[in-house]
Amino acid sequence: MLILNISDRIEGLERRVSELEHEVAELKRSQGSAAPVFKQGLAAPLSAAAPNLATSPHKLEEAAYPGVHAKPAAKDWEHLITRVWLPRVFMFVLLIGIIWGFKAASDGGILTEPFRVILGYLASGALIFFGFRQHKSDRPLLAQVLLGGSIGVLMLTTFAAHYLFGFVGDSAAFALNIVWVALGLWFSTRFHAQALGVLASAAGVLVPFLIRTSHDQSTLFVAYETLLFVSFMIVALRRRFVALFYVAFILLHLALAIHGLTSDQSGSAIAIGVLIQQLVLLGTVLGFRRLGKHQTGILLASFAVTTLWFKIELSDFWFNLSLILFFAGYAAIAYVSWKKKSDLLPYALTIAAYSLLFYLMNTIDSEYLIGLVLMEGFVAIWLGYVIRSNWQKVSGLIIYILGSIGASAILAEGMDAFLSSSLFIWLALLGTLIGLSQVSAVYAGLEQAQLRKVAYYGIGLLLLGFLSDATQVQAQGYNLNMQHLLLSAVWVIYAIVLIVAGVRIGKKQVRMAGVILLFLTLLKVIFFDLPAVSLMIKAVLFIGLGGVGVLLSRLMYTKK
């Protein structure tokens, strides 16, 4: 049937090619354009392309006429409603009607329990028969709905025979359901229908929940669900079923989550299952790239979910050990990818960076962790510039932002002592910001010039905050007059340094920053210091500020 179907498609494409030849010839005669001339014998080789039609028949016209781009046709709502959604919706309605019909016949004593089971299997067989007939008649969407409905009826009938009537034991019911899932998967590959694969995947995940067991079998459950994921993932990759690839990944974790909530003995079995998934995904990314960025994206998502499962199910020792192994393994993959110039490099670096981040968060409880997170974020961003990967830059930026939020929360409380975790965080924040500015200057050049100007002003303000914080801590042993005097003196010295540096390097922005800081110091003295200090300190403050202002003005005249 598949060969006949391909032959029909070939004949249809040959007719379409002939029509396109006539249309192009008419356009060429009427417009005198330089459209490509299509030879009359072009349709003949179409039969030789039959092997390729099995995988991508819809691309034949595009391959035959690479220079012709047809105008996109308007969406056919009639086709979408009557051929796509109408059979799907009413197949669901039909299944509900069958269930209610069985219930009504059972309540009325019309159908015995064995006859109901037999009738269910006969109904599913009829759906399969008519599904094949519809596919042979070139009605693929209707055929898919009928075949998908047959899988649903088969599983519902098996569930009734096992769970409700007790005709079938645990092992037999499990085996029958596996057969129905395999049948749905065969339908999917046989007719190249991704929807049937998604349905079979969902049915397969439900199988353990449809079996009545008297004891917990967590290991068997996780092994089955993991093997099911691997099987459907292979089919998705071989057939390039993107939706099935995502659905299989999501359903595995959904099934594990439901089992974890309902079972007290899942233990490390779930952790082993998700680890196998992560390793299998990594293996496909390294050696079987059929879906491109979809695989690398799922690999990142799998790492995040795997880490969460490990944190829930494993002890701190095994959790930390797994993070160290993840970091070492993906760092090695990143190094090899860098040597081979592989596009896997930013993804491997991202997983390595977050492995290290999670390890630090789980092992270091003190505030020093924030400084280490800032440093890791800086290194990750720098690597993004080195390998020219926006993905890696964003990954590092997320880590750096998390560190900056933590640093802001701690530094807002002020220093308790000069030699403390706050000093380490201040130095890490200032050092990494200066480093990021230099990295941007080296690798981005003029593209990020305006961004660097903003960063420089931010660094200047942070440096002022650090000097103020450190001065207040050091001045705690003095009286109030001396504390105000020392803080104002530090501000004035910082302003002098900025102005002198701006004069030396010829940067107007730096000079103006110093002048603005000098005026801010004057405002601070007037509104905050004068009401709280003695007359002698007032005199010292105003004499010092006045003298500095005049001398700096003289220096500016010298520069001019």
Oligomer: single chain
Stretches with pLDDT under 50, minimum 5 residues: 1-5, 32-70
Output the radius of gyration: 36 Å
Could you estimate the helical fraction of the residues in percent?
over 70%
Largest sheet: none
Distance between the termini: 91 Å
Coarse shape: elongated
Which structural class matches the secondary elements?
mainly alpha
Question: How many extended strands?
Answer: 0
Percent strand? under 5%
Can you offer a commentary on this structure?
It comes from Paenibacillus phyllosphaerae. The chain has 560 residues and is mainly alpha-helical. Among the domains are: 109 residues, no CATH class; 80 residues, no CATH class. The protein has 21 helices and no strands. Helix 11 packs antiparallel against helix 12, helix 14 runs parallel beside helix 16 and helix 20 packs antiparallel against helix 21. It is elongated.
Q: Brief overview, please?
A:
This protein has about 550 residues and is an all-alpha fold.
Give me some keywords for this one.
mainly alpha; Putative membrane protein; single chain; transmembrane; disordered N terminus; DUF2339_TM; transmembrane helix; 560 residues; coiled coil
Which helices and strands appear, and what pairs or packs with what?
Layout: H1 2-31, H2 50-53, H3 60-64, H4 77-107, H5 113-136, H6 140-164, H7 170-190, H8 194-206, H9 218-239, H10 242-262, H11 267-287, H12 293-313, H13 316-340, H14 345-363, H15 368-387, H16 390-411, H17 421-443, H18 449-474, H19 480-505, H20 508-529, H21 535-559
Helix pairs in contact: 4-6, 5-6, 6-7, 6-8, 7-8, 8-9, 8-10, 9-10, 9-11, 10-12, 11-12, 13-14, 14-15, 14-16, 15-16, 15-17, 16-17, 17-18, 18-19, 19-20, 19-21, 20-21
